[in-house]
Amino acid sequence: xxxxxxxxxxxxxxxxxxxxxxxxxxxxxxxxxxxxxxxxxxxxxxxxxxxxxxxxxxxxxxxxxxxxxxxxxxxxxxxxxxxxxxxxxxxxxxxxxxxxxxxxxxxxxxxxxxxxxxxxxxxxxxxxxxxxxxxxxxxxxxxxxxxxxxxxxxxxxx
Length: 158
Fold this sequence. Notes:
mainly alpha; elongated
């Protein structure tokens, strides 16, 4: 982003790209896909460790042995979907919603690196975290559900 965020919204619009349906579709797809991939990757790397910290190594090992999951499921860990949802929400807030709304709606005369910092911080705290906290709560409740009876599969529909 960089300098582009500080420019007026209309100055960077390319007339050809603005009307090209193929360009717009690719741009929207990329804008939606990038946070999903980033959030999923972060969850794939960290969820298992977070779950082990939640339960403790001994209880987590007991739960895993009772569930008898496949290798991919074991690598991702329990409650992977709710963990991924939280991370996708935070990635969207940070890398999509904040820059787009700052560029499009923040008063041009007040744009600066300092205002971008405070705007981004506010968006992450008051928008991203407010929504993502619901997924964090779902993650914890899912793990509580998983631990019942020594270990059972999570069913988000119950």
